[in-house]
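Regression test attached.
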Amino acid sequence: MTNTSKSLETAAHPENLRRVAIDPVSRVEGHGKVTLLLDENDRVHQVRLHIVEFRGFEKFIQGRPYWEAPVMVQRLCGICPVSHHIAASKAMDMIVGATLTPTAEKVRRLMHYGQILQSHALHFFHLCSPDLLFGFDSDVAKRNIVGIVAAYPEIAKQGVLLRKYGQEVIRVTAGKRVHGTGSIPGGVNKNVSVEERDYLLKDIEQMIAWSKDAVGIAKKLFEQNLDLYNNFGTFRAHTLNIVRADGAMDLYHGGLRARSMDGETLFDHYDYSHYWDVIFEDVKPWSYMKFPFLRSLGPETGWYRVGPLTRVMQSDFIPTPLAEAERKAFIAFNGGSATGATLGTHWARMIEMLHSAEQIQELLLDPDLQGSDLVSKGERQERGVGVIEAPRGTLIHHYKVDENDQIIRCNLIVSTTHNNQAMNEAIRQVARQYIDGKKLTEGLLNHIEVAIRAFDPCLSCATHALGKMPLEVELLDVEGSRVDMLTRSSDGAFCADC
Amino acid sequence: METPILIIAIGNDSRGDDALAPILVRRMQNLDNAEVEIIEDYQLQVEHVTDLVGRSAVLFVDADVSCDSPFHFSQITAAHDNSYTSHAMSPTALLHAYRLVYGSDAPPSHLLRIRGYGFELGDDLSDEATANLEQAARMIGTWLADIRVVEE
């Protein structure tokens, strides 16, 4: 376990150092860039993760009628549109003063767990498994989805079908695969018919079985590489998540829980409609992305980690039997070493995938899904806050609406923003462990990317025109002039000046 | 029985010229639904292989920042595409994944790349892209007529 000091954030004397930029970080949604400052002996003096965030979205939504928000926000992200759809809907529930009907809440929960299932399946089976199954230094030509399909066809196929199943849950509940309209202010616009329920029930046992197998794969990988998995990019952090009133994991709704890196509860079951009293956002001159922190601890030490590892570790229990058994095994494993390990996130993510599959089954068997009381309203409010646990962590949507029903203010704190400092800590730790004093290779640089990918950061601009995602590694001098350059070509190979 | 012709439009309405493909296919809503199915999505991912099963022809449509204007239309085949691209797959890599998942080649597939220029959030379609869209729409009409003749 390492310290959490901010060393390596800013070099003492950057003027004599050379700069390496990894731009963009691959298999990360959106654009990420890592810069390292190295001296003539390849000693690392500074490491920073920079991400171009979608701050423009908050302006984009201003002036629109509030009821459009749950649909419009889906255009923010091509990967987690459903999470934004639901978080915005929850905020709008407050605006219209609604208390959801049982049918509305359960349909939304079903949609949300479908999103968690498909997102976690994609991340584990297709984005991270190339690193985990082949190794971080393995042949770059193998280290991708196609390599996985070729070497582990059954695993890859299960990943495809788990993801497809999650998207079918979304289609049934949201009305469409993309641009869904199912969740609206105060409720939902459709229930789940008996035919739709039976269609989804048909395959759910298989999805639960595959999810359980996936937990086994994640656990086995940890066991087989214990030293690596315990220490790779590992750091101590405060945590933030939402929990149900009884302390259970609840990814759809709950109160905020923050714990210090020593396990002390900083606040618990905190009403998120006033989140700004406990969370604030700091700005740093070298990053577009803000750095949230716990107000009581201040900007220097109050940063925290969100996401699967936090949720599995900080929830008192998981309210489905198979996932709860796996949570207990995870916490007990090797004296609890996985619960603080960056690579333990993959294992925790699979436990959540299993929980999501179990939740989907439980919800499908609930007759409230066929109810006809879909929407409620109450006293109109001017401010609405919606918080959920999205696949990557806590997601906050906050809106202010004027008397003409127009949105006049919007603030989003997405999971990846919460994890900004945590990701920086992880890559600094990897730089200390693997890069400091060594000659740079593609495999070593991939170690940095592996640490980032453990967080599954999502910075989607939802724009993916062909030809827009090159990968270049540049070596620049302190004036910014290019000294050397590597390009990752379409066949996966690195070449110099090509 | 799957609809024989599948068109997959990739793009985001709210991102300037990234809306090219969605706008194009929405103009085609009057097509015979028994023959043509249209899927819109923000980006391609591996589960789209399941949409290709049982088709006689597939067309991918996407905005492109690198092709010549107004558009580039080509037949595509499976390719071992190892580019590290984030959560999105290229159409050729998707065809390759199809082969590995199902053990056979994907249906005959084409890719229509329409030249786009600006992709900022909240922007409308640019004038240049709008002009390219018109030409691409005429080309798709011709392509559909041709493959229907072949099928008959």
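Expected vs. actual: identical. Chain A touches chain B through 57 residues (CB under 8 Å).
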